[in-house]
Amino acid sequence: AWLGVCALILVMVVKRRDNPYPEDPPAVQWATFEQLRLKTRDQLEIGAWYIPGRADKPVVILMHGHGGNRG
């Protein structure tokens, strides 16, 4: 029973609740976003936006929390 409950909790936490949906990038004057789909080792796809940077500037990665979205 303990193993079954642990497996159920694991599936509930890890499994995607909704189908992927498009998240349009914000409209800003200072950049053009490129939309990407990144595929994980377990074949899940993660939506991403990419803005090419400059070699002399730092890199910034913004991520949302569990259950959130980029919007």
List the helices and strands and how they pair.
Blueprint: H1 2-14, E1 34-39, E2 45-50
Antiparallel strand pairs: 1-2
Question: Alpha-carbon distance between the termini?
Answer: 40 Å
How many strand units?
A: 2
Regions with little confidence, pLDDT below 50 for 5+ residues: none
Radius of gyration (Å): 17 Å
Give the strand line-up of the largest sheet.
Answer: 1-2
Q: What is the makeup of the main sheet?
A: 2 strands, antiparallel
Structural class: alpha+beta
DSSP summary: helix tally: 1
- Described by the principal axes of the CA atoms, the overall outline is elongated
The oligomeric state is single chain
The string of secondary-structure elements, in order, is HEE
Please, what is the average pLDDT?
80
| Percentage of residues in strands | 15-25%
* Residues in helix, %: 10-25%
Would you mind describing this structure in some detail?
The protein is α+β, with helices and mostly antiparallel strands. Helix content is 18%, strand content 17%. It contains one helix and two strands. It has one helix at residues 2-14, and strands spanning 34-39, 45-50. It has a two-stranded antiparallel ribbon with strand order 1-2. The chain is elongated and about 55 Å long. The chain starts with a helix and ends in a 21-residue tail after the last strand.
